[in-house]
Write a structure and sequence with these properties.
With 326 residues, the protein is mainly α. The protein is 77% helix and 1% strand. It has twelve helices and two strands; from the N terminus they run H-H-H-E-E-H-H-H-H-H-H-H-H-H. The chain has a two-stranded antiparallel ribbon. Strand 1 (64-65) and strand 2 form a beta hairpin. The longest helix has 45 residues, at 281-325. The protein starts with a helix and ends with a helix.
Length: 326
Amino acid sequence: MAAVDAIRLTGRRIRAGDASLQIVAGAAAAAACVLVGLIVWKVIEGALPSIRAYGLDFVWRNAWNPVLGHELYGAASFLFGTAITSLVALVLAGPLAIGVALYLTELAPRLLRAPVTALVETLAAIPSVVIGLWGILVLGPVLRDHVEPALHSALGFIPLFGPPSSSGSSIFTAIVVLTIMILPIVASITRELFLGVPGELKEGALALGTTRWEMVRGVMFPYARGGIAAALILGLGRAIGEAIAVSQVIGGVVGIHVSLFAGGDTLASKIAESYQGGTTKLQVASLIYLGLILLVFSLLMNLAAQWVVRRTARRQGVGTNRGGLG
């Protein structure tokens, strides 16, 4: 009876295909939520021995001593390494990625657009372990022998640019590797955003006498800024979660060092390096505790990206409505 009343109220017949689609789509969405909940619950369960032993002090304690009888663990060193490598890599990759996207959509000759775009997307598909090996064999020695000494010579008065590393494994090497890894992701997304800018808006701006740069700055960037911000946050999340490539080039050193040329470690790389070799229950639980912190970071990045996109979409909608009323 209720179904009949619903049909009368809506004036539409309930079709089997529509009902099936709604059930399947709803089940998929519910399964995704359940999966995330199970992952969070399992990680918390595995980290409980460390949480009970250290509490929140674990987050800002700078220690990692797995010696039996003197075990002491903390995440401060790895939090610092994760923050410095990810943020500096984003600062370097962001402008480069936007420049690449702008070149491919507005400036590159038509003959070059397709092959260069394919190369950028291929760079994103290279396995991280291969990039890590390249960092060990090629990038690390180049940075150690040429780039780091030059930066230290020119900017050595700044603590960030201390004495060059002797092995080529350093925070700076990890930053460059992460920059290379997140650049194609941000560039590909930004390129799609620029391609989605309506042609009549760009042509109208040019017809009013603006230069190409003025058109890009006044039309393309405002139109795509919400998506660009989300792409940058997505790139940051990728950098925070990278484990294999970073573990191969960062040096695996526990400690907080001001110099970018010193060794270090991150949350993800420490888990990748040490989990299989965990010898005690407390050590394994502490590694899972690092994973819990990393999971919280990832969830916060995702929420931040959604908030930025929705806020920008709301602002653009308000601007459009105002323009129409005017």
